[in-house]
Write a structure and sequence with these properties.
The complex is a heterodimer. By secondary structure, chain A is α/β, with parallel strands linked by helices. Chain A has 25 helices and 28 strands. In chain A, the strands form eight sheets. Chain A has a six-stranded mixed β-sheet. In chain A, β9 (238-242), α8 and β10 form a beta-alpha-beta unit. The longest helix of chain A is centred in the N-terminal third of the chain and has 19 residues, at 129-147. In chain A, 60% of the residues are buried. By secondary structure, chain B is α+β, with helices and mostly antiparallel strands. In chain B, a hairpin with a 6-residue loop joins β4 and β5. Classes of the chains: A alpha/beta, B alpha+beta.
Amino acid sequence: MKDKLPPLSRRKFLKTSLAAAAVTAGAGTPLVKSLVPGAHASGSRPPKGDLTSHFTACDMCFNRCGMIARVRNGVIEKIDPNPKFLKSRGMICARGNAATNHIYDPDRLKYPLRRTGKRGEGKWERISWEEALDYTAEKMLEIGEKYTRCGMMFIPGSDMQSQLVHRFAEVYGSFNITSHETLCLLSKNRAYLDTIGEVPYPDVFYSKYILIAGANPFEAIITPDTMDFFEARKNGCKIIVLDPRFTKTAAMADEWYQIKPGTDMAFFLALCHVIVKEELYDRDGCCPKMTYGFDEFFLHIQQYTPEWAQEECGIPSEDIIRIAREISAAAPSAMVYPGRRTSDYKDSTQIRRAMAITNALLNNFDKPGGLLALREVGVKTPYYDVPWYDDNPFDRVEAGLVPGLIDHEGSFQLMREAIISGEPYPIKGWFNFKTNFMQTAANRNKTLEMIDHLDFIVNIDIAMTDTAWYSDVVLPGASFLERKDPVSALQGSSACACAVLRDPVVPEMFESRSPFWICQELSKRMGFGDSFDFTMDEYRQKQLDGLDGALEAMLNDGVYYNPSQVYGIYSGSPLKTLSGVKEIFNQRYARSGVDPMPVYRKRRMPGENEFRLVVGRTAFFTHSNTNLELLTEFMEENVLNMHPEPAQNMGLKDGDLVEVKSQVGSGRLRLELTQGIEKQTVYMATGFGALSPQMSLVHNRGASIAEVLEDYHDEISGNMAMHETLVTVRKVA
Amino acid sequence: MKKKYCMVIDSSVCIDCKACMVSCKVQHKVPRGFWRNWIKNSDPDFTLGKYTSMHFQPGGCMQCDNPTCVYACPSGATFKDDETGIIHVNEDLCIGCGNCVKACPYHARYRHPVKRVPDKCDFCRERLDMGLLPACVDTCPTKARNFGDRNDPDSDVSRLLREQETVRIVSRPVDTEPNMFYLSSTMPMDWPGPVEYPAAHQAMVGVVNPLVKVAVGLSGLGVAAMFLKQLFTSDEASHEEKKEEV
């Protein structure tokens, strides 16, 4: 198969692929046809064949909710929730329900491909696995020899097999590893690490007062928090939301404040001002023995009055004062919700620090209804030798560029800069598994520029994503329903510290292979086969060493719970901070020239006829995983939300095709007017405007956030900063 | 004992996540563009400022005790199951006239584009037989949808109906006596449309006595049987061919 892949209609393709699936499973019955939407020949006759049930864990996002897959004649017919799975409270969201669509997606990659034309031109040749692995190993060794082993960048994804890809990267010899978190929550992690010494879990279930800012948990579903908000509310919990957009979280809250984007810190500093001034904080929890730098903070906070904050963030000072009093009264069973995707501004870590400090004043850490400490699950990471390469550089390529880089996560954005500049040393290869930075990282044109500096890109995925489209070798990965995966430890709220694993529900389709197998095969070819010389069962056994009955529990119930201590884990022992107590004043920041306490600075504001572009998502898509027929029915393409008032001033109408343009790129999409957005802000959803024609449902539909977003980074953690972009909007004639 | 299945919905916890809609779609292989269930929403009133809110209302076939669709069906294909209270469609009896689709004030039925018969929520009959909850109820993240037997005093739905106030949504001209209950309040309320009975049926209901109705019904059945006979005498292969053209 040379040149372009022949066009296949979705229906025709699906029939072929399903027939293939049935043959693989050893049962080719007409029932298979019934999975084809709109083309099945069912009457009222009951389907033939037994329905079998298999436990698995969802991978449509990163929550790993418990699932039961119902299989008939080798085909997954339906996904149901696992009622014993406490983390997901016995539910499966729209994305999880669409997992059948994910595995039987007509756009799935079927066999290894090698690029024959220019990158992005779409010319591919089908090659055998043998060829693909030999070629990849050869290229990786070549890069290792010419540019040291650190000349390969690894992005191992956030999947249950990612730990093995991570291991592969380290054994190969590169420490230039980054993951999707660099576009997600590193700034939050940094902020909490630097305040209480670890990244906590919110105990939503028992909370009495929750303040949500910079998060949208009812649309970006996170288990069990999303479900627990309602349980908490039934028990009298009050939920306050700050958001420039009227999200569904805002729509369901007790109070919603349309805060000006990027001014959250002003609100939280003012909240702290009131709590400190009125002495509403927990005296025991904020005494010098329990906190570091409370006195400095007392002085620091004087300037941030509620009246001042009102000017900045647009929330009336009397509301700020009232919220401060209410949340303190509910403490310690009250919280500022830590949030998830916090990669928004250049000072994201400091914004989240302001929130973490508010939590410290509420003294809610390690307490019911507050923020929970990490619990013991007991799943181990099997030991492996990391080889030493003499010629490797001393550190990561972006080391030292920001003061708070998280070691094993790095910063994709700073790595990208380093690759383009070639400084401090060259990176010439990219090993990618199941991430799609071409569609999710800001400034796509710069990612394309980075690609021009790379000699070799290999990509494991189940679909031809935009990132795969620009790769040199594309390896078809097995979907999560077809794989045998290692054990994964999870924690939710107080309900669960648990472990899950996956066994194949159906055999691998076409020529797809698991990343574990791929890493094993590549290791053999590159001379470190010993490091991957084990079976999945052996690996799991090592992971579960000392956890008697865990494997049986997972096989019988789909989940294993560890009844470890929930609250008061730190009672009497020091926190993992430098001072051993909550650091309101961060000593390490002070030493490295960073503001030791959050300082509010005005950010670049939109000028006349300019808007701040904010991005986000819906409850039925995960990032760029939008190419699903079942789910695009809810949203066929993204739209640009704008307030009717500026639209009227600019002569724009609902439904107009507009061009949204930043300094780095532009996109075209339809305008949708709503009063539910701050007047100087526009919004669009992620996951559309794909470049790859094999993302057939989202290719050239709507606009891509990656194209329009300007690339800024959080100055402490190096996390992408996605809400700094200012855009102009004009009607396309 | 006879069952009386019903759904009690706490729409105040629905977050419009669409899980019930996708779950149903996969379970019943509902074609693109059609749905057996839905989530409706109220319009936010932004003049309320910080108290602006939205209400999301899950729904589906209301499994009415006064089922206008059953009355409008000339062939007896649409019927209320005496044992469960669920309204079913017997696809073998259906003549495809579409009267039931019009007669439902909730727009809970659609004509299946391939099967050419009305399709609607049946509380997942096959799942109930397997001891599973209906797909939408099982998957619901916030457990807005509750399902069970009203005749069982110990069921969750009976308890909810006993302990809490509920509202039902009815169309203006007809109280359909739906078995879909909403806890204390729900929005929007004004969406059910009129009940459209076929003209001949209306005349019949008004003028003709029940005996004649039975006779006409039986003759309708005869017509349906003839139609079915025609349908099934063709061999399987050409049958398939025909479906492909659709």
